[in-house]
Amino acid sequence: MSFRAYLDNVETKTGKSAEALKAIAIKKGLADDSGLAPGVKPGAIIDWLKRDFELGHGHAMSIVAYFKGKRT
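User: That's the sequence. What structure does it adopt?
Assistant: Structure tokens below.
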């Protein structure tokens, strides 16, 4: 599955784009404009996405990669 397909599937499942999830993460203090917030480990983002949006591990990891700057 391509990176774009992961992001598309996340949006289908959650109703939120990767950019919208990043905005929520910034409000929660998990991310900032340049990526993960200082001191935040990827596991914290993954746990949040699994808990609040019922994403699987692979889809949550794609959002972490997006936060860190990976683009399609």
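The mean pLDDT is 96.
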